[in-house]
Specification:
By secondary structure, this protein is of the alpha+beta class. It is built from 26 helices and 16 strands. The strands form seven sheets. Strands 2-3-1-4 form a four-stranded antiparallel β-sheet, sandwiched between helices. It has a two-stranded antiparallel ribbon with strand order 5-7. Strands 6-13 form a two-stranded parallel ribbon.
């Protein structure tokens, strides 16, 4: 049982007697001894120092917290401090103890005096519960033991898993809606008039896709692509986009209620981080003066300029991907390989998506370093302020890394490439990509599908395998070979703590922002699940599958592969709530723009009600979108091609004089037709209407669902009343009356 009593373990290399490192280590341990800490030394391949804090430190903490928190009238100095609080207090004192050379533990670790400092995983009942009910694959669909997580890892970790569990639960509804939308697309809407016309258009000659030795092609060649496009781009998608805008709001509102319930149950609703920090500072050093809040407009300006500089670089990378796709498209079209030349556009988009994923991996590392540098430049006062500052910066950088290329595909692809005879070119040579005659939404679908699948599979495999392999290697490397026992010599009894401490040391180190990385991953996933979900209805389903795996994979990592995290207190998920709310607003704008601009929904509706045969004659049996494809293609005269364009004028034995291309332009001067402006006005009107309706629904949902449940409000009110009623001065007043 003795091994249970050590709060913290420090690990040091075996330094030479009298060396600088050995002297520095001794000075630090002497400082801890002066504060009343008990220190136990065990020698192995490394030196292990077990640290136990004196009881009066915890009594001081209880007294200070009671002064700050009047809602603890019944607690006494003799009550045991929770184990999570013990670890938190000891961790703070150990890391803030200053040697006579004005060095703290972190400075000594940087100088390799100490190698590691960590709290121990305990062999107790709560760990058994977590291993059986949480950190194994067999319980993937059971409720998480949040209370046990809190008692072992602290409130901050417990709140993360409570939030992740809640998000995953509500994803079930979004995933079902997305699946219904996708199935509806493949069944109800698969035989649309638009895709039927494309499949039947075997006499519609389209303009060449490249400038050099490219032949004309027949529109019906792209029949399969048109069918796939209409599976994604149909009336059900509009309803699904509206549903997801409401879902994002309802999810956050319901989470606020869940958080209020959980935090009130833990008696943390009025907990204050500043008071906690000041109490710990005073326990460590009673002469300590608080570190005051700082703000510098000059420093903020520098941070803003540097952040904008990186965002510009990230947008530049998106431009590079655009150039790659334009060049790849030209090369694939002219390729001798039939598969490449036939599916040049799809191949360019798919290879571009893989390249985009590689840039995401590289830029994530760059973004992290820059965000950390800017965060240190800002000089935040507390750890949570540092986390919040870091979170905002890295999320913005990661958002641009992930979405710049998607924004281009969604809103610019095929709209800024010019027209035959007057193409926009890169370096005066390569034409920008064009959209397929049935729309650009499939390109966005392919890009999102590839990035989401790659990101979730590869990232999850790496996230699990790297700590697992690292742990196995550490075990092999760190284990000492046992000294053989000589004849007649008794085997020395091993200290019971030694094996336990060594097992903990062999686990992977816990990074200060370990939990932060999990939140960031989920925030980016939430962006994919909501912002362009109109183009990729399967995103919530992929997110749901990922999260079911993620919860238990994180649990296994934390319980078996990583050292124990220092438990931290928290009463909410911090800045991440504001980030998720911002994503919710962006989701309304993004989906509105996808339907208004990327999708062919608006042009088809405009055609139906203004130009189709239904407007001239009362054809009840006719589909009103009949003739849409022919109407949406403009005519180009071959003689107007640019001089350097080399096209093969013959096609299947016929001399070609005219070809068609996707746009709304006149055949004589190639200026925009009236229909183009009608569609432009309709797109704008739909966008304004969609966003206002969606935002109004969001506001109504936010008002309709209270952030704090009535039961919780009444509980807090009763607690306040009882505290005031039981106040000694109040009791005296009652007896006098």
């Amino acid at each position: 049982q003795n091994e249970e009593n050590w709060d913290f373990v420090l690990v040091s290399g075996i330094h030479e007697m009298g060396s600088e490192k050995e002297i520095k280590r001794k000075k630090f341990l002497d400082e801890l001894s002066k504060k009343g800490f008990t220190i136990k030394k065990i020698e192995d391949t490394k030196l292990f120092y077990g640290v136990r804090a004196p009881k009066d430190i915890f009594r001081k903490y209880q007294r200070l917290r009671r002064k700050a928190d009047s809602r603890q009238p019944n607690s006494s100095d003799h009550e045991d401090v929770e184990e999570t609080a013990r670890i938190r207090i000891v961790n703070f004192i150990v890391y803030n103890t200053v040697t006579p050379d004005f060095e703290k533990l972190q400075d000594l670790m940087n100088k390799k005096v100490f190698e590691a400092a960590f709290p121990l995983h305990k062999k107790e009942e709560i760990k058994r519960i977590l291993n059986e009910e949480w950190a194994r694959w067999g319980v993937s669909f059971k409720e998480q033991p949040i209370e046990a997580i809190r008692c072992y890892f602290g409130e901050k970790v417990a709140l993360y898993f409570a939030w992740l569990g809640w998000y995953t639960y509500l994803l079930v509804f979004a995933a079902l809606a997305g699946l219904v939308t996708f199935v509806a697309g493949t069944t109800v809407f698969s035989s649309s008039q638009v895709s039927k016309e494309i499949c039947d258009a075997n006499t519609t000659i389209m303009c060449p896709l490249c400038d050099q030795n490219c032949s004309f092609w027949v529109l019906s060649d792209t029949c399969t692509y048109a069918k796939v496009t209409h599976m994604i781009d149909n009336e059900a998608t509009v309803a699904f986009a509206m549903f997801m805008a409401i879902w994002a709001t309802v999810f956050l509102e319901l989470w606020k209620r869940e958080r209020a319930t959980v935090v009130t149950k833990w008696k943390l609703h009025e907990w204050d981080e500043d008071e906690e920090e000041l109490a710990l500072q005073l326990i460590n050093n009673f002469q300590h003066k608080p570190r005051w809040y700082q703000h510098s407009y000059f420093r903020s300006t520098i941070i803003l300029i540097l952040a904008l500089l990186l965002i510009t670089v990230l947008i530049g990378i998106a431009h590079t991907l655009v150039i790659y796709r334009a060049v790849a498209m030209a090369l694939f079209t002219q390729s001798d390989v039939n598969l490449l030349s036939k599916h040049a556009n799809t191949m360019a988009v798919m290879t571009g998506a893989v390249l985009h994923y590689i840039t995401i991996i590289i830029m994530t590392k760059v973004n992290r370093r820059v965000a950390l540098f800017l965060c240190n430049l800002e000089k935040p006062r507390t750890l949570s302020q540092q986390e919040n500052s870091f979170a905002v910066k890295i999320f913005i950088f990661q958002f641009f890394t992930h979405f710049s290329s998607l924004i281009y595909i969604a809103f610019f692809l095929g709209r800024i490439n010019g027209h035959p005879g007057h193409y926009v070119r890169i370096a005066g040579r390569w034409r920008l990509e064009e959209c397929h005659p049935s729309g650009c939404i499939t390109d966005l679908f392919i890009q999102m599908a590839i990035i989401m699948v790659l990101k979730q599979t590869i990232s999850n495999i790496m996230e699990y395998l790297i700590p697992l392999i690292s742990h196995q290697l550490r075990k092999k490397r760190k284990r000492p070979t046992k000294r053989p026992v000589m004849l007649g010599e008794e085997e020395e009894a091993e200290d019971p703590c030694k094996r336990h401490w060594l097992n903990n040391y062999e686990l992977n180190d816990v990074y200060i922002f370990s939990l932060f990385d999990e939140y960031l991953e989920m925030a980016i996933q939430y962006s994919f699940t909501t912002i362009f979900v109109a183009a990729f209805p399967l995103a919530p389903l992929l997110a749901l599958i990922n999260n079911v795996i993620e919860i238990h994979m994180d649990a296994i990592k934390m319980m078996r592969l990583h050292r124990r995290m220092v438990p931290r207190r928290a009463k909410d998920i911090g800045i991440w709530l504001q980030i998720l709310e911002a994503i919710g607003t962006l989701a309304v704008i993004g989906n509105g723009l996808v339907i208004a601009i990327t999708s062919d929904f608006i042009p088809v509706q405009v055609y139906k009600y203004m130009y189709s045969p239904c407007t001239r004659e009362n054809h009840t049996s006719m589909d009103c979108s009949t003739g849409y494809i022919n109407h949406s293609l403009s005519v180009f005269r071959i003689q107007d091609f640019e001089p350097h364009t080399k096209v093969l004028p013959e096609f299947k034995g016929h001399q070609i004089e005219e070809c068609r291309y996707r746009d709304y332009r006149n055949a004589d001067d190639y200026a925009y037709t009236v229909q183009f402006w009608h569609i432009f006005a309709a797109r704008l009107a739909f966008l304004i209407l969609f966003e206002h309706v969606a935002l109004c629904v969001k506001l109504i949902a936010a008002w309709y669902i209270p952030d704090v449940p009535r039961r919780v409000k009444n509980e807090i009110l009763r607690e306040k009343y009882e505290n005031l009623y039981n106040e000694p001065s109040m009791m005296e007043y009652v007896t006098e009356v």
